[in-house]
Amino acid sequence: MFGTLTDSFTNAIKKIRFHDDAKALSKALTELKKNLLKADVNHKVVKELIQQVELKTKAAGIGKDQFLNALRETLNELLDVGGNKGFVFAPNPPTVILMTGLQGSGKTTTTGKLATYLKNKGKKVLIVAADLQRLAAVEQLRQITQQIEVELYEDEATKNPVDVVKSALEYANSKIFDVVLIDTAGRLAIDDELMQELENVKKAANPDEIFYVADSLTGQDAVRTATTFKEKIGIDGVILSKYDGDAKGGVALGLSSQVQVPLRFIGLGEKMEDLEVFLPERIVNRLMGFGDVEGLAEKVTNVIDEKQAKKLTKKIQKGKFNFNDFLEQMEQMKKMGSMSSIMGMIPGMGNMSKAIKDFDFENSGELKNIKAMVSSMTPKEREDPDLLNNSRKQRIAKGCGLDIVDINRMIKQFKNAGKMAKKFSGKNGMKQLQSMMG
Ligand code: GDP
């Protein structure tokens, strides 16, 4: 994520080397402008950004630090429309959110992703099927909610979304849900009928916030439709979907200031975990090539079950980390999503080679091999890695159809993972990890 945009900034930053050098500043600004336009950032936004950076740098006295500060400040102003938000909980539960968007924008998928995000935070979520326009929408929600184990409220007896919303909210209040996500109807394009329906649903739901899901692949159209939704029914936040498919990514930079509504989340794939909170300060760090250690830590904590983690830490400290734990760890990594979204958060890793960034845990041959190897072990061997002598390794290799060399390599990997884990499981583990990341 943000690869092209980050390149735009880091390339410009490289041009600034000397103190008091107006020529270097001009070169850096030209470079920045060219790259941002290439990344499809709206031209008015680019113009404003360049002007601001130039003014601020000159006011502070030309130099690298001044340029970096000016860039940081300007980016913050550009992205921070209405404060650093993420998800905002209402003072009294349930927090009611209306999910809106055009057909095909990714609204239904995003509803599932948001529910997953909230569930990972320990919240009890109810999804309401109020998109009664698209025939397959309710069925799609059934599948999603089953997969993520979140309750779905639906009412096949009525075709009126207002009735569904009213009874869903009564139900939510009686069962004490933390959050209610209402999936509303979409259309291929904005029309009066849709707006009227949304207005009626809005009245019935009295939502705490209305989110608009915009397809980033539609570029500036996403900005235009979001603006229309804002004018007609009022929206409190935009979620930009399909950002993984948007190689240029410029729309994310201008959207908040263009629509004057904060960008709150970004969708980065079709899986339920592929949603990231958009917090301007963190994003600015990433755009400037400084990574996002906080975001990474959050991602890890979301995925890891706390009780399980404590148990594992004890085992690791006692040197009792075994193959079952190893397999479990690999499964947890899988839940974090593709490597590319993780890499972008590690300082200096934003520009990693594509092959590494695209590493997919779920479909990785290595993970399959490890699984096969562990499956060929006896329960005792899984619990006690020290049992693995040569003849046992030969047997395992045969059992899973791999070479003994592979088995040795994977066992070595396992032992290294154990050592690393032990190192980071102590009191200062997280600090060590952070210092390693810069
Ligand atoms: P709706 O009509 O707005 O409810 O759209 P859907 O939720 O059915 O999504 C339309 C298509 O976009 C589906 O195939 C989704 O899997 C896909 N989609 C949604 N969000 C993302 C995303 O962030 N990345 C990618 N690659 N695909 C997405």
Automatic annotation (TrEMBL):
GO terms for cellular component: signal recognition particle. It is found in: Cytoplasm. One of its GO terms (molecular function) is GTP binding. Gene3D superfamilies: P-loop containing nucleotide triphosphate hydrolases (3.40.50.300), Signal recognition particle SRP54, nucleotide-binding domain (1.20.120.140), Signal recognition particle, SRP54 subunit, M-domain (1.10.260.30). InterPro entries: AAA+_ATPase, P-loop_NTPase, Signal_recog_part_SRP54_M_sf, Signal_recog_particl_SRP54_hlx, Signal_recog_particle_SRP54_M, SRP, SRP/SRP_N, SRP54. Its main location: cytoplasm. GTP binds at residues 101-108, 183-187, 241-244. SUPFAM superfamilies: Domain of the SRP/SRP receptor G-proteins (SSF47364), P-loop containing nucleoside triphosphate hydrolases (SSF52540), Signal peptide-binding domain (SSF47446). Its EC number is 3.6.5.4. Keywords: Cytoplasm, GTP-binding, Hydrolase, Nucleotide-binding, Ribonucleoprotein, RNA-binding, Signal recognition particle. One of its GO terms (biological process) is SRP-dependent cotranslational protein targeting to membrane. SMART domains: AAA, SRP54, SRP54_N. It catalyses: GTP + H2O = GDP + phosphate + H(+). It holds the Pfam family SRP54_N. Residues 262-275 form the SRP54-type proteins GTP-binding domain. PANTHER family: SIGNAL RECOGNITION PARTICLE 54K PROTEIN SRP54, SIGNAL RECOGNITION PARTICLE SUBUNIT SRP54. Part of the signal recognition particle protein translocation system, which is composed of SRP and FtsY. Belongs to the GTP-binding SRP family. SRP54 subfamily. Involved in targeting and insertion of nascent membrane proteins into the cytoplasmic membrane. Binds to the hydrophobic signal sequence of the ribosome-nascent chain (RNC) as it emerges from the ribosomes. The SRP-RNC complex is then targeted to the cytoplasmic membrane where it interacts with the SRP receptor FtsY. Composed of three domains: the N-terminal N domain, which is responsible for interactions with the ribosome, the central G domain, which binds GTP, and the C-terminal M domain, which binds the RNA and the signal sequence of the RNC. This is Signal recognition particle protein. It comes from Sulfurimonas paralvinellae.
